[in-house]
Amino acid sequence: MFKRAMVMGAAVLLLGACSSVPKELAYEPENQLVAYQPALALEGKPARWSGVIAAVHNKADQSVIEVVYLPLKSNGVPEQTEQSPGRFLAVMKGFVDPTLYAKGRSLTVLGTIGKPVDGQIGQHKYRFSVIDATSSKLWPPVKEVEIRYMDPYFYDPFYDPFWPRRPLRR
Question: Which residues of 4-14 are buried (b: 16+ CB within 10 A; e: fewer)?
Answer without folding.
Answer: eeeeeeeeeee
